[in-house]
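TL;DR need structure tokens for one chain.
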Amino acid sequence: YAHFPINIAISEGGKKVEVRNFLGEKYTRVIYMPEGVTAANSGNKDEYQIDGNSIEAVSQAAARLQQSTSVKNKDIRKFLDGIYVSEKLNIVPLEEEGSA
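>> reply
TL;DR here they are.
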């Protein structure tokens, strides 16, 4: 992390995520969010939020982001760079029926 900080740019209203400078590579990884899913900065440093109504579509978007930065042909115990899912939650908890 100290030598090659990953740069993430979110564009097109949260529909397109670009990952630059992963492990110092010049290749820019572009990940498009599925229909109904948006990506945004969460306000904290190096933390991003993926929102949507469909849990399957949000999970697919998170998996695409994580798999796009998987380390190949290196010791993954040493090269810990990448994008990881840190927390899964509902933004608005579902209200249970019958509770008053």
